[in-house]
Design a protein that fits this description.
Tetracycline Repressor, domain 2; 211 residues; Arc Repressor Mutant, subunit A; single chain; mainly alpha
């Protein structure tokens, strides 16, 4: 009589792959239900790991959330840097910046909810990161505005913050529209047109060099 085959054990993933698996599962849970309603049990189940394994990677739920928040912020900042450095044509820069926001909110992972709509916004560690991200985004645009217009750093930062608010709120509104909403390209064109009509009214004192 043939002995029964030993049960097949799941392959053990390298630590970094397992960590990424946990992060992916946590992002899905946090994006769906928010921080407060999410549980480590649900995250562990979604990731296909035991709770002890989960806690080996992240001591607590807040640690897990902060790592995801940092990654989401960096993705948006990287897209903004590319938008501003990819061309010296300011109209194209505005379009690219608007497109970066709309692409971010449309990303299937839902990371934008952690960055823009955190239900943990009053937690000091979260608030600090969100404020730093807002300032970093505005500061990048402000540097370009100040260089091209001759406005003071504070004046340029104020203008950049206003444009940032316009684009951010518009992108969040767009993602919640129903089935008849404009396409992403249509929405980008509309909002970029509005932003450009505003910022282009400031004369260039130091026009960028043609590419």
């Amino acid at each position: 009589m043939t002995a029964p085959a030993a049960p097949t054990r799941a392959a053990r993933l390298p630590r970094q792959e397992r960590r990424q698996q946990v992060l992916t599962a946590a992002l899905e849970v946090f994006s769906a239900v928010g921080y407060h309603a999410a549980s480590m049990d649900e995250i562990a189940e979604r990731a296909g790991v035991s709770k002890p394994v989960l806690y080996q990677h992240f001591p607590g739920k807040l640690d897990l959330y902060l790592e995801l928040l940092d990654a989401g912020v960096e993705d948006l900042l990287a897209a903004a840097r590319q938008a501003l450095t990819g061309t010296t044509d300011n109209a194209l820069r505005v379009q690219a910046m608007v497109r970066a926001y709309f692409s971010f909110v449309e990303e299937p992972s839902g990371a934008f909810r952690l960055v823009f709509e955190s239900d943990l916004a009053h937690e000091p560690a979260v608030r600090e990161r969100m404020d730093a991200a807002d300032h970093a985004m505005a500061a990048m645009s402000a540097a370009v505005i100040a260089e091209d217009t001759g406005l003071s750093a504070d004046q340029a930062l104020l203008l950049a913050s206003g444009m940032q608010g316009l684009v951010q709120v518009s992108a969040q509104r767009w993602i919640r529209m129903g089935s008849g909403r404009p396409t992403r390209e249509q929405a980008t064109e509309l909002v970029a047109g509005l932003a450009w009509r505003g910022i282009s009214s400031f004369p260039l004192s130091h026009p960028p060099q043609a590419e």
